[in-house]
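Exercise 7.
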Amino acid sequence: MNAREERGRRASLRGWGGVGAMAAGCALALASVLLLPLTQSAGDPDDGPPAGAGRVAAGSQARADACADPEKQTLAPSGADGPTIDAIKARQGAKRKLIVGIDQNSYRWGYRNPNTQGAELEGFDIDLAHRIATDILGDRDAVQFRAIPTNQRIPAIEDGRVDMVVRTMTIACDRLSDVAFSAPYFKTGQQVLAPKSSSITGYDDSLADRRICTATGSTAYTKLSQDKQNGRLPSTTDISVTVPNQLDCLVQLQLGTVDAVVTDGALAASQAAQDPTVELKGAAFTTEYYGVAMKKDADDLVRRVNRVLVDYRADGWQRSYDAWLSATLGKDAAPSRPPAPEYLRTS
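Solution. The predicted structure, written as tokens, is:
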């Protein structure tokens, strides 16, 4: 059976997974601003990196064109306030909230749980956003979530629609020209997601004559584009299908209009959990790290988030992993834990 016939067969066998994913995609289009409560006690201010927080190297933040290890291009932790945090705290009344860009359709990362009253936002990224907002404003209700599509993460930061993005966002060299990142809070890698019945075996020659879906502006598309140019990916692989939101790729796969999806393995595992007819094919073929993205000149906010992450890795990260991700990624969290952070000190 060729690739086109296989797509046609799958299109005629759409199941509950396709319907559910399309419904989730529609829900995203309807979402604009979401509010959820938050509570935890704020930590004591700390003007410098805590002991054991990670290594600090002298220098300034690297330019993207000179970047080799993007996950290390961040600032040393600090609990001190600065102009960005002062502006957040100066918001009055009901507007005194940290505004966080998130996803509401990534299962177990940031999604609306229909089994809760009011279909509350839950997930691994949501937990982290709560922790950051608590540290800065000390109030469980002081966080405003804004659902944004994959291709709007950077524009939302640059336009000031959000203070930060906590949305399975890979720390990448080309993105350092546009935004600043925290230290990494999760380790993953690109993988292939395809129907269980597919003859695709992974990121290899089995992708020849296949149509692949990626999200617009994603590191997955960048990787595929580069590999087509350097010959690592078969020249007949079609990577022209891109969508605004990563979940839309799962819909395309279920409709039979594409043969496979390439995305972060952590996200792909959650998508496979939503639809039992698809599975991960082959091992991860990149190493990537998720970070919290903020405005490039928001140094005080970057430092503050990095301080929160020091505490969160020690107390909170594992509980959140166990609650949300162990079912899809396994009980052993070691492969997903980011390395000990390394920081740059601005001169």
